Amino acid sequence: MLVHQAEPYNAESPPGALVGSITPLDAFYGRNHAPIPRIDPESWRLRVEGLVDRPLELSLEELRHRFGERSVVATLQCAGNRRADLIEVRDIPGQVPWGPGAVSTACWSGASLADVLAEARVRPEAAHIAFTGADLSQQAEPPQPFGGSVPVAKATSSEVLLAWSMNGQPLPTAHGAPLRVVVPGWIGARSVKWLQCVTALAEPSDNYFQSEYSVLPPEADPHRAKPGDGITLGPITIHCAILQPGKDARLPSGPTEITGFALAGDNRTVARVDVTADHGNTWTRADLDPPENPWTWQHWRTTLTLPPGGIELIARAWDSTAAVQPESPATVWNPRGYANEAAAHLHITCRP
């Protein structure tokens, strides 16, 4: 793991852990805004409240017995993934300098959030479902637990889970035990860990982190920004990464295998990945794995014949709506460094 901060713990997965369809638990990235809470699963209860006719208070055992277990393979990605590329354009003080490894995939199992909300009988005027965790963040003033919300339409989609299991094992403490939300296709910040409360609301959550995860205009001061000043983040934007060769690798010239993954977000899929080694004069279409479902990454590979000297590899992805990544990180720079959807750039050197 590449550890950026020890407390709160923030670490990205190494490239070698991202080559398979499922990320091992000990290599799954960690993103936190507060110390990891330790919760007694026996005394823990989940509250379901707000604009509902039947408020609920459920133990983990009650959740397991009253609602059938479902599983979904889903890729989670931090909204700040590849922020380091944006920092190279212009500095972004106070933010974690994520490389391309703030992304991982797991098989999640738990109760369908839609089933739980149906039992609580969400009222027609509810338009958003908010989540509140147990991790108390000092980043907010005054300090508050991490939280956020998603629209009711997303919350009641079949893929959204209240997960108690990860890769066939009990959910680890570091990843939200005893229970977390998993919102496939949306930024990782909406998959709230150490879940304490689910609240049906008429408006989006007023939690600090609901609006903090927004893209501000380039000229904005992030320390003075108010809710509504930016574009609140939800569905993941299209993303692509080069896994092999590694950054600044020195390789023999000639045929070279280039591999990576791409992720479309929401319920879209990746339709195509193109790779160039000559600044876009020519592009080669990579072989692309089919998606397991619309919420997982897709791995790709191609072989290019590389000449001696310094090479900049560029990989760009297209999604199923024909949206394509912009070529330069400079075009998507923003003062919080979120949603870097620019094409992946990698510098290597080839020996004669």
From TrEMBL:
* Keyword tags: Heme, Iron, Metal-binding, Molybdenum, Oxidoreductase
Domain of life the protein comes from: Bacteria
User: Which regions form coiled coils?
Assistant: none
Identify the residues that the record assigns to the Oxidoreductase molybdopterin-binding domain, covering every copy.
Answer: 33-209
Q: Which SUPFAM superfamilies match?
A: E set domains, Oxidoreductase molybdopterin-binding domain
Where exactly are the transmembrane stretches of this chain? Answer: none
- Cofactor(s) demanded: Mo-molybdopterin
Give the Moybdenum cofactor oxidoreductase dimerisation domain ranges: 237-342
Protein known as? Sulfite oxidase
Lineage, top ranks: Bacteria, Bacillati, Actinomycetota, Actinomycetes, Kitasatosporales
